[in-house]
Amino acid sequence: MKVAYSAVIGGLGDTIHSYAVWTKMGSIADDEVLFITAEPEETRMELPGNVVRITSTIKRGGRFRYALSRVRFEFHNFRSIMRHKELDAVYARYRTFDVSTVLACKLRRVPMALEINGFPSQEVQNRITLKLAIAMNRVFEKFLFRRAIKINMIDEIQVAEFKRMYPNADHSKLIVIPNGYDPDIFHPRDRVECRKELNITSERPLLLFVGALEAWQGLPNLVEAMKEIDADLLIVGDGSLEDELKGQVGEAGLEDRITFVGRVPFEQVPVYINASDVCLVTLPKERTAFTMKIREYLACGRPVVATRNPMTERLADDGTVVAIEDNEPAMIVEAVNGLISDDARMKEVSEKGIAFTATTNSWEDSAREIWELLEEIVKER
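RESULT FIELD:
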């Protein structure tokens, strides 16, 4: 069976997700796999030999430049699917206005499965032009959801959100294949050795955020909270909010305690996690997402402070994460200060996190379930 993956990637989370799953897919597939993506040159990672990269470059540096890159990719994606006439199925990561995958699959009569990791409406905050685009995309989505044979929602909370947002869609198409993590990379390591490797010499507690520097992450509130927390903060990742955040840090006089590390190679991420004392997920409570970073933080045995939302509810209730009711600065201050001053609680939360991740999917598990899904929709064709 020959399959293709179609996606626009570039953020730290979606890059890790895409490469992790489709690297594992290479060892499962009995034919070559097409990796049709739009991504910045600097984010590209190695792929196994039977995973064929067909990549268009996403240009950063402003909305207009990015939009042109997206348009170019849609032509590139359409052409790639149409040219490979031996394709049996396409697995597409949801993106706004994905006309090319829908049209190519329809013309080629190739079954398509869709993966939804989050809804654009949850990522738009007070940006009128984008809100208008999302409203227009909602019209297109009806066609997209009709065309998809199956829709992978990642988790049950996303299923419930989908049903609420799209009450007239065919809900029998919805399935759940959870995101995973790589236990060979994300596991507890010696904190002192990790700090030596990263040349960290400060004696203050070390806080960590890893991810895209975008509005939905709640990072301005985290920076504000750092005024009242006696700790250092490392921010690993990049994104459109970087300059604004650096300006905020400068105005607050926190340059000596908040460090912007930038994007790092994937294999270095667990080193940063294990070097830290507490890891942070400060999403607004309205964002119903269980981000991959929580699982990776917990797998490394790091205590996590996370906003309570439907996806973190169970972990918050049993004490696997330290929950804040919203990402208000005062709430972040109270939770972090309470945790870093209580060694016994730090140890307890750490042990619960390790136990939790032992029961969850690895990326290999997720890749195998996706492969079985694609086999199923090919048989149903």
